[in-house]
Known about the structure:
Layout: E1 15-28, E2 32-34, E3 39-42, E4 49-51, E5 64-68, E6 72-74, E7 78-91, H1 108-116, E8 119-122
Parallel strand pairs: 7-8
Antiparallel strand pairs: 1-7, 2-6, 3-4, 3-5, 5-7
Amino acid sequence: MANLTITNVDLGSVILKDGEFRDDLLTFAGAATVLEGTILARDSGTLKLVPFVKGGVTNENGIPKAVVTYDVVAAGAGDESIRDMVSGSVRAERLIIDADGDGSNVDAAVLDQLRDYSLISIDVQELNILDNQ
């Protein structure tokens, strides 16, 4: 008898409801990928988006103002055109801090900062993902 293969199908998105979006430029320092759910800040000097830095103080990079709703890939340094979410409800468990590559440091303080800019995080239990453990 063959071994069973279990596949998890993830149909969720960081967007939950009532999203408002804006066309912006995201600045990359080099070749990189910014994942869906990554929190972004607006550089006060260039007014372009940059990855949010928890506790950051350089050009307002520690103030979260938007969320990426799909993976963005850059081949090198420069700006990439994106459509970011600037208000609405997002899934809290899908938010990412770029430096970590995951949501392990997205705490209540970060969620409060997002709320200040109309990005409301909601805890959601995914029912479309198989739990095989």
